[in-house]
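Fold this sequence, please.
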Amino acid sequence: MPRSSAPPERVGLRLDQVQDGDPMILSFETEELRTICEDPDVATSQLGEDVAGVLRLRLADLRAVDCIDDMPVGRTTRRGQECDLLEVELADEVVMTFESNHKRPRITDTGSVDWPQVRRIRLTQIGRPS
């Protein structure tokens, strides 16, 4: 019998089912964004010391929450026609912009992204709000 490539705890988990405690999975639109988020020196040179420090705090917050709506600080704003973009404020005029990174996005009855159900997010930009 062929072995499943999914971790054992995920076998049988429906795609539309979210369980408390599932970690957020963060991916990056570009290699540059990944480098900014992973290398404090690059973040500081690209964003300045203050914004880079807040970026590190927001990334730590993302690792600690079950969904992006649970972020303890950093004002969040939904943008886009289907509220498919979510911005997290880092500083005045600087935001992190995310989109759902599920193959089949979690959608509400009104057609908007159901952000409390999203566990896979992709960072698409760091910069001025849309």
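The longest strand covers residues 120-127. Strands lie at 25-28, 76-79, 85-91, 94-100, 120-127.
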